[in-house]
Design the sequence.
Protein backbone atom coordinates (compact mmCIF):
# COMPACT_ATOMS: atom_id res chain seq x y z
CA UNK A 1 0.00 0.00 0.00
CA UNK A 2 1.37 3.44 -0.92
CA UNK A 3 1.71 6.18 1.65
CA UNK A 4 -1.08 8.08 -0.08
CA UNK A 5 -3.43 5.10 0.08
CA UNK A 6 -2.55 4.54 3.70
CA UNK A 7 -3.28 8.19 4.41
CA UNK A 8 -6.70 7.92 2.80
CA UNK A 9 -7.54 4.78 4.78
CA UNK A 10 -6.36 6.45 7.95
CA UNK A 11 -8.62 9.42 7.25
CA UNK A 12 -11.59 7.14 6.65
CA UNK A 13 -11.05 5.58 10.08
CA UNK A 14 -10.90 9.07 11.62
CA UNK A 15 -14.21 10.31 10.19
CA UNK A 16 -16.03 9.68 13.47
CA UNK A 17 -13.66 12.13 15.16
CA UNK A 18 -14.35 15.06 12.85
CA UNK A 19 -15.38 17.26 15.79
CA UNK A 20 -12.10 16.49 17.57
CA UNK A 21 -10.12 17.38 14.43
CA UNK A 22 -12.16 20.59 14.00
CA UNK A 23 -11.51 21.65 17.58
CA UNK A 24 -7.79 20.86 17.36
CA UNK A 25 -7.54 22.82 14.11
CA UNK A 26 -9.37 25.82 15.60
CA UNK A 27 -6.91 25.84 18.53
CA UNK A 28 -3.86 25.56 16.25
CA UNK A 29 -2.79 29.20 16.32
CA UNK A 30 -0.44 31.22 18.53
CA UNK A 31 -3.26 33.08 20.31
CA UNK A 32 -6.93 32.21 20.51
CA UNK A 33 -9.34 34.45 18.62
CA UNK A 34 -13.12 34.66 18.80
CA UNK A 35 -13.52 31.84 16.26
CA UNK A 36 -11.43 29.51 18.42
CA UNK A 37 -13.35 30.46 21.55
CA UNK A 38 -16.62 29.73 19.75
CA UNK A 39 -15.29 26.34 18.62
CA UNK A 40 -14.35 25.49 22.20
CA UNK A 41 -17.83 26.33 23.48
CA UNK A 42 -19.54 24.39 20.69
CA UNK A 43 -17.32 21.32 20.33
CA UNK A 44 -15.73 20.65 23.74
CA UNK A 45 -18.92 19.12 25.21
CA UNK A 46 -19.20 16.78 22.17
CA UNK A 47 -15.77 15.10 22.20
CA UNK A 48 -13.36 13.36 24.54
CA UNK A 49 -10.17 15.11 25.64
CA UNK A 50 -7.98 12.26 24.39
CA UNK A 51 -9.57 12.46 20.93
CA UNK A 52 -8.73 16.15 20.65
CA UNK A 53 -5.17 15.70 21.92
CA UNK A 54 -4.60 12.76 19.57
CA UNK A 55 -5.88 14.75 16.59
CA UNK A 56 -3.67 17.69 17.59
CA UNK A 57 -0.66 15.38 17.85
CA UNK A 58 -1.15 14.11 14.29
CA UNK A 59 -1.55 17.67 13.06
CA UNK A 60 1.79 18.56 14.68
CA UNK A 61 0.30 21.00 17.21
CA UNK A 62 -0.28 18.75 20.22
CA UNK A 63 1.53 20.77 22.92
CA UNK A 64 0.15 24.09 21.66
CA UNK A 65 -3.44 22.81 21.71
CA UNK A 66 -2.89 21.32 25.17
CA UNK A 67 -1.58 24.63 26.51
CA UNK A 68 -4.61 26.47 25.12
CA UNK A 69 -6.97 23.96 26.72
CA UNK A 70 -5.41 24.55 30.16
CA UNK A 71 -6.49 28.20 29.94
CA UNK A 72 -9.86 27.73 28.25
CA UNK A 73 -13.30 27.25 29.73
CA UNK A 74 -13.52 23.49 29.20
CA UNK A 75 -14.73 20.49 31.20
CA UNK A 76 -12.49 19.46 34.09
CA UNK A 77 -11.44 16.28 32.29
CA UNK A 78 -10.16 18.37 29.39
CA UNK A 79 -8.09 20.62 31.59
CA UNK A 80 -6.67 17.69 33.57
CA UNK A 81 -5.59 15.74 30.46
CA UNK A 82 -4.22 18.90 28.84
CA UNK A 83 -2.10 19.76 31.88
CA UNK A 84 -0.81 16.20 31.98
CA UNK A 85 0.21 16.49 28.33
CA UNK A 86 1.97 19.82 28.94
CA UNK A 87 3.92 18.39 31.87
CA UNK A 88 4.98 15.32 29.89
CA UNK A 89 6.12 17.44 26.95
CA UNK A 90 8.02 19.81 29.23
CA UNK A 91 9.87 16.99 30.98
CA UNK A 92 10.78 15.30 27.72
CA UNK A 93 11.94 18.52 26.10
CA UNK A 94 14.07 19.46 29.10
CA UNK A 95 15.96 16.20 28.65
CA UNK A 96 16.64 17.21 25.03
CA UNK A 97 17.88 20.62 26.21
CA UNK A 98 20.29 18.98 28.66
CA UNK A 99 21.62 16.82 25.83
CA UNK A 100 21.89 19.83 23.52
CA UNK A 101 24.11 21.64 26.01
CA UNK A 102 26.24 18.51 26.42
CA UNK A 103 26.78 18.35 22.66
CA UNK A 104 27.47 22.09 22.36
CA UNK A 105 30.02 21.92 25.19
CA UNK A 106 31.80 19.04 23.45
CA UNK A 107 31.80 20.98 20.17
CA UNK A 108 33.22 24.06 21.93
CA UNK A 109 35.96 21.98 23.56
CA UNK A 110 36.90 20.71 20.10
CA UNK A 111 36.90 24.25 18.67
CA UNK A 112 33.86 23.56 16.48
CA UNK A 113 31.15 26.07 15.59
CA UNK A 114 27.51 25.22 14.91
CA UNK A 115 24.13 26.89 14.63
CA UNK A 116 21.14 25.27 16.31
CA UNK A 117 17.74 25.59 14.66
CA UNK A 118 14.20 24.24 14.96
CA UNK A 119 13.79 21.95 17.99
CA UNK A 120 14.19 23.63 21.40
CA UNK A 121 15.38 26.92 19.87
CA UNK A 122 12.15 27.32 17.91
CA UNK A 123 10.06 26.23 20.89
CA UNK A 124 11.51 29.11 22.91
CA UNK A 125 11.77 31.78 20.20
CA UNK A 126 8.33 31.11 18.65
CA UNK A 127 6.23 29.89 21.57
CA UNK A 128 8.13 31.22 24.59
CA UNK A 129 7.90 27.86 26.35
CA UNK A 130 9.59 24.50 25.83
CA UNK A 131 6.34 22.70 26.67
CA UNK A 132 4.38 24.26 23.77
CA UNK A 133 6.11 22.51 20.86
CA UNK A 134 7.05 18.90 20.12
CA UNK A 135 10.37 18.01 18.54
CA UNK A 136 12.03 14.67 17.95
CA UNK A 137 15.66 15.57 17.34
CA UNK A 138 18.33 18.26 17.60
CA UNK A 139 19.20 20.09 14.36
CA UNK A 140 22.77 21.41 13.99
CA UNK A 141 24.24 23.36 11.06
CA UNK A 142 28.03 23.09 10.77
CA UNK A 143 30.74 24.16 8.27
CA UNK A 144 31.39 21.47 5.62
CA UNK A 145 35.07 21.35 6.52
CA UNK A 146 34.22 20.47 10.12
CA UNK A 147 31.95 17.53 9.34
CA UNK A 148 34.50 14.73 9.93
CA UNK A 149 35.50 16.16 13.30
CA UNK A 150 31.86 16.88 14.25
CA UNK A 151 30.98 13.26 13.45
CA UNK A 152 33.88 12.08 15.62
CA UNK A 153 32.72 14.26 18.53
CA UNK A 154 29.19 12.87 18.33
CA UNK A 155 30.51 9.32 18.25
CA UNK A 156 32.66 10.07 21.31
CA UNK A 157 29.45 11.06 23.11
CA UNK A 158 27.84 7.71 22.40
CA UNK A 159 26.03 8.55 19.14
CA UNK A 160 25.90 6.14 16.21
CA UNK A 161 25.33 7.05 12.56
CA UNK A 162 21.87 6.17 11.29
CA UNK A 163 20.62 5.69 7.75
CA UNK A 164 17.18 4.98 6.35
CA UNK A 165 18.14 1.46 5.24
CA UNK A 166 19.62 0.63 8.64
CA UNK A 167 23.26 0.65 7.50
CA UNK A 168 26.00 2.82 8.95
CA UNK A 169 28.01 5.23 6.81
CA UNK A 170 31.30 5.87 8.56
CA UNK A 171 33.32 7.59 5.84
CA UNK A 172 32.56 11.20 6.73
CA UNK A 173 34.82 12.56 3.97
CA UNK A 174 32.87 10.86 1.16
CA UNK A 175 29.62 11.63 2.96
CA UNK A 176 30.21 15.39 2.61
CA UNK A 177 30.58 15.14 -1.15
CA UNK A 178 27.41 13.09 -1.59
CA UNK A 179 24.91 14.43 0.91
CA UNK A 180 23.81 17.43 2.94
CA UNK A 181 22.96 15.89 6.29
CA UNK A 182 23.58 12.94 8.55
CA UNK A 183 21.50 11.52 11.39
CA UNK A 184 23.17 10.36 14.60
CA UNK A 185 21.32 8.50 17.32
CA UNK A 186 22.17 7.85 20.96
CA UNK A 187 19.94 5.18 22.48
CA UNK A 188 18.75 5.34 26.04
CA UNK A 189 18.60 2.39 28.39
CA UNK A 190 14.97 1.85 27.39
CA UNK A 191 15.61 1.79 23.63
CA UNK A 192 14.43 -1.54 22.18
CA UNK A 193 16.92 -3.45 20.08
CA UNK A 194 16.43 -2.57 16.42
CA UNK A 195 15.30 -5.53 14.38
CA UNK A 196 13.75 -3.79 11.39
CA UNK A 197 15.13 -0.79 9.45
CA UNK A 198 12.92 2.25 9.94
CA UNK A 199 12.76 5.67 8.37
CA UNK A 200 13.49 7.40 11.68
CA UNK A 201 15.49 6.41 14.77
CA UNK A 202 13.51 4.93 17.66
CA UNK A 203 11.49 7.38 19.74
CA UNK A 204 13.39 6.41 22.91
CA UNK A 205 16.74 8.17 22.90
CA UNK A 206 18.14 11.28 21.24
CA UNK A 207 18.69 11.91 17.54
CA UNK A 208 20.96 14.64 16.13
CA UNK A 209 20.56 15.89 12.56
CA UNK A 210 23.95 17.15 11.45
CA UNK A 211 23.60 19.37 8.37
CA UNK A 212 26.29 21.18 6.40
CA UNK A 213 24.31 22.43 3.40
CA UNK A 214 20.89 24.10 3.38
CA UNK A 215 18.88 23.00 0.42
CA UNK A 216 17.67 19.93 -1.40
CA UNK A 217 18.64 18.07 -4.55
CA UNK A 218 16.10 20.18 -6.43
CA UNK A 219 16.92 23.48 -4.72
CA UNK A 220 20.65 23.57 -3.93
CA UNK A 221 22.13 25.33 -0.94
CA UNK A 222 21.16 28.98 -0.69
CA UNK A 223 22.97 30.02 2.50
CA UNK A 224 26.55 29.18 3.44
CA UNK A 225 27.52 28.51 7.01
CA UNK A 226 29.91 31.49 7.10
CA UNK A 227 27.21 33.90 5.96
CA UNK A 228 24.70 32.50 8.44
CA UNK A 229 27.31 32.64 11.21
CA UNK A 230 28.03 36.31 10.53
CA UNK A 231 24.30 37.12 10.75
CA UNK A 232 23.56 34.83 13.71
CA UNK A 233 21.69 35.70 16.86
CA UNK A 234 21.37 33.93 20.21
CA UNK A 235 18.40 32.48 22.09
CA UNK A 236 18.37 31.60 25.78
CA UNK A 237 17.53 27.90 26.01
CA UNK A 238 17.64 26.32 29.42
CA UNK A 239 19.25 29.46 30.81
CA UNK A 240 22.21 29.36 28.39
CA UNK A 241 22.69 31.29 25.11
CA UNK A 242 22.47 29.13 22.00
CA UNK A 243 23.62 30.42 18.58
CA UNK A 244 20.99 30.26 15.85
CA UNK A 245 20.00 31.88 12.56
CA UNK A 246 19.00 35.51 12.35
CA UNK A 247 15.26 36.15 12.40
CA UNK A 248 15.06 36.65 8.65
CA UNK A 249 17.15 33.55 7.92
CA UNK A 250 14.99 31.55 10.34
CA UNK A 251 11.86 32.43 8.36
CA UNK A 252 13.56 31.31 5.14
CA UNK A 253 14.75 28.08 6.78
CA UNK A 254 11.19 27.33 7.97
CA UNK A 255 9.83 28.16 4.51
CA UNK A 256 12.37 25.84 2.89
CA UNK A 257 11.46 23.00 5.23
CA UNK A 258 7.74 23.45 4.65
CA UNK A 259 8.18 23.57 0.88
CA UNK A 260 10.30 20.40 0.97
CA UNK A 261 7.33 18.55 2.50
CA UNK A 262 4.57 20.36 0.54
CA UNK A 263 3.42 22.04 3.78
CA UNK A 264 1.59 18.79 4.46
CA UNK A 265 1.57 19.29 8.21
CA UNK A 266 -0.33 22.05 9.97
CA UNK A 267 2.33 22.39 12.66
CA UNK A 268 4.92 23.64 10.17
CA UNK A 269 2.62 26.50 9.17
CA UNK A 270 1.75 27.33 12.78
CA UNK A 271 5.48 27.44 13.63
CA UNK A 272 5.90 30.27 11.12
CA UNK A 273 2.89 32.16 12.47
CA UNK A 274 4.12 31.81 16.05
CA UNK A 275 7.65 32.92 15.15
CA UNK A 276 6.39 35.99 13.28
CA UNK A 277 4.14 36.85 16.24
CA UNK A 278 7.03 36.82 18.72
CA UNK A 279 9.96 38.29 16.77
CA UNK A 280 10.84 41.50 14.97
CA UNK A 281 11.28 40.96 11.24
CA UNK A 282 12.97 43.31 8.80
CA UNK A 283 10.55 42.61 5.97
CA UNK A 284 12.55 44.45 3.29
CA UNK A 285 15.64 42.47 4.24
CA UNK A 286 13.70 39.21 4.28
CA UNK A 287 12.23 39.76 0.82
CA UNK A 288 15.60 40.84 -0.58
CA UNK A 289 17.27 37.68 0.71
CA UNK A 290 14.50 35.53 -0.70
CA UNK A 291 14.82 37.20 -4.11
CA UNK A 292 18.60 36.75 -4.19
CA UNK A 293 18.19 33.07 -3.36
CA UNK A 294 15.41 32.54 -5.95
CA UNK A 295 13.01 31.67 -3.15
CA UNK A 296 10.52 34.51 -3.48
CA UNK A 297 7.59 32.22 -4.34
CA UNK A 298 8.50 29.79 -1.58
CA UNK A 299 8.52 32.68 0.90
CA UNK A 300 5.24 34.12 -0.38
CA UNK A 301 3.49 30.74 -0.25
CA UNK A 302 4.75 30.21 3.29
CA UNK A 303 3.63 33.64 4.49
CA UNK A 304 0.23 33.41 2.80
CA UNK A 305 -0.38 29.98 4.32
CA UNK A 306 0.63 31.20 7.78
CA UNK A 307 -1.58 34.29 7.53
CA UNK A 308 -4.67 32.51 6.22
CA UNK A 309 -4.32 29.42 8.42
CA UNK A 310 -2.97 30.72 11.73
CA UNK A 311 -3.37 34.52 11.69
CA UNK A 312 0.32 35.28 11.14
CA UNK A 313 1.05 39.03 11.26
CA UNK A 314 2.22 39.55 7.67
CA UNK A 315 2.23 43.05 6.07
CA UNK A 316 -0.75 43.63 3.78
CA UNK A 317 1.40 44.53 0.77
CA UNK A 318 3.25 41.19 0.97
CA UNK A 319 -0.03 39.26 1.17
CA UNK A 320 -1.32 41.24 -1.80
CA UNK A 321 1.78 40.31 -3.84
CA UNK A 322 1.39 36.65 -2.84
CA UNK A 323 -2.29 36.54 -3.79
CA UNK A 324 -1.56 38.22 -7.11
CA UNK A 325 0.75 35.34 -8.10
CA UNK A 326 -1.36 32.53 -9.56
CA UNK A 327 1.36 29.93 -8.94
CA UNK A 328 1.56 30.86 -5.26
CA UNK A 329 -2.21 30.76 -4.93
CA UNK A 330 -2.39 27.28 -6.46
CA UNK A 331 0.32 25.96 -4.12
CA UNK A 332 -1.45 27.41 -1.09
CA UNK A 333 -4.89 26.12 -2.10
CA UNK A 334 -3.43 22.67 -2.77
CA UNK A 335 -1.66 22.56 0.60
CA UNK A 336 -4.76 23.70 2.48
CA UNK A 337 -6.93 21.19 0.65
CA UNK A 338 -4.56 18.29 1.24
CA UNK A 339 -4.31 18.89 4.99
CA UNK A 340 -8.07 19.41 5.23
CA UNK A 341 -8.82 16.13 3.44
CA UNK A 342 -6.11 14.16 5.29
CA UNK A 343 -5.99 15.92 8.65
CA UNK A 344 -4.51 13.14 10.74
CA UNK A 345 -2.19 11.51 8.23
CA UNK A 346 -1.04 14.33 5.97
CA UNK A 347 2.53 14.69 7.22
CA UNK A 348 5.06 13.49 4.66
CA UNK A 349 2.25 12.48 2.32
CA UNK A 350 3.33 11.44 -1.16
CA UNK A 351 2.02 13.34 -4.16
CA UNK A 352 3.01 11.27 -7.18
CA UNK A 353 5.69 12.14 -9.73
CA UNK A 354 3.59 14.30 -12.06
CA UNK A 355 2.02 16.25 -9.24
CA UNK A 356 5.39 16.72 -7.59
CA UNK A 357 6.91 18.01 -10.84
CA UNK A 358 4.09 20.53 -11.29
CA UNK A 359 4.49 21.66 -7.67
CA UNK A 360 8.25 22.14 -8.02
CA UNK A 361 7.81 24.19 -11.19
CA UNK A 362 5.12 26.37 -9.58
CA UNK A 363 7.59 27.39 -6.87
CA UNK A 364 10.34 28.40 -9.31
CA UNK A 365 10.89 32.16 -9.56
CA UNK A 366 12.23 32.20 -13.15
CA UNK A 367 12.10 30.25 -16.42
CA UNK A 368 15.77 29.40 -16.03
CA UNK A 369 15.08 27.96 -12.59
CA UNK A 370 12.28 25.84 -14.06
CA UNK A 371 14.62 24.41 -16.72
CA UNK A 372 17.25 23.62 -14.09
CA UNK A 373 14.60 21.98 -11.91
CA UNK A 374 13.47 19.74 -14.78
CA UNK A 375 17.09 18.73 -15.42
CA UNK A 376 17.61 17.94 -11.75
CA UNK A 377 14.40 15.91 -11.61
CA UNK A 378 15.68 13.88 -14.55
CA UNK A 379 19.31 13.37 -13.53
CA UNK A 380 19.90 14.02 -9.81
CA UNK A 381 19.69 10.64 -8.01
CA UNK A 382 17.08 10.16 -5.31
CA UNK A 383 16.67 7.59 -2.53
CA UNK A 384 14.68 5.32 -4.86
CA UNK A 385 17.63 5.21 -7.29
CA UNK A 386 20.01 4.12 -4.54
CA UNK A 387 17.54 1.42 -3.50
CA UNK A 388 17.04 0.18 -7.08
CA UNK A 389 20.74 -0.16 -7.94
CA UNK A 390 23.63 -0.64 -5.52
CA UNK A 391 26.84 0.94 -6.80
CA UNK A 392 30.20 1.29 -5.02
CA UNK A 393 31.41 4.76 -4.05
CA UNK A 394 33.85 4.83 -6.96
CA UNK A 395 30.94 4.52 -9.42
CA UNK A 396 28.53 6.87 -7.65
CA UNK A 397 28.47 9.22 -10.64
CA UNK A 398 26.73 6.54 -12.70
CA UNK A 399 23.52 7.16 -10.76
CA UNK A 400 23.05 10.18 -13.04
CA UNK A 401 22.78 7.66 -15.88
CA UNK A 402 20.76 4.98 -14.10
CA UNK A 403 18.15 7.49 -12.90
CA UNK A 404 16.91 8.64 -16.35
CA UNK A 405 17.05 5.03 -17.50
CA UNK A 406 14.93 3.92 -14.55
CA UNK A 407 12.42 6.75 -15.15
CA UNK A 408 12.20 5.83 -18.85
CA UNK A 409 11.48 2.19 -18.01
CA UNK A 410 8.76 3.24 -15.54
CA UNK A 411 7.17 5.51 -18.16
CA UNK A 412 7.23 2.71 -20.74
CA UNK A 413 5.61 0.28 -18.34
CA UNK A 414 2.80 2.75 -17.62
CA UNK A 415 2.11 3.03 -21.34
CA UNK A 416 2.02 -0.69 -22.08
CA UNK A 417 0.30 -1.92 -18.90
CA UNK A 418 -3.51 -2.19 -19.18
CA UNK A 419 -5.43 0.41 -17.22
Sequence:
Amino acid sequence: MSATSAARKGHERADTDDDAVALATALARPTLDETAQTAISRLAPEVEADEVLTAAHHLGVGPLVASHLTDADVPAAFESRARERCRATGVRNLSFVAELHRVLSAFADAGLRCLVYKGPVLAVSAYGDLSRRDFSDLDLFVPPGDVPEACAVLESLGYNPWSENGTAVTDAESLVSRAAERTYFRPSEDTPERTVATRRPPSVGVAVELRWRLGTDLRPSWLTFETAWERRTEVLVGGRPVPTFSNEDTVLVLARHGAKHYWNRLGWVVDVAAFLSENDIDWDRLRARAARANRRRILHACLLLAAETADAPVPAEILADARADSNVRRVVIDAQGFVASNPETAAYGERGRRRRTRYELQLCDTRRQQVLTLCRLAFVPQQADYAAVSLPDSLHGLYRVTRPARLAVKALRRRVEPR
DSSP finds 20 helices and seven strands in the chain.
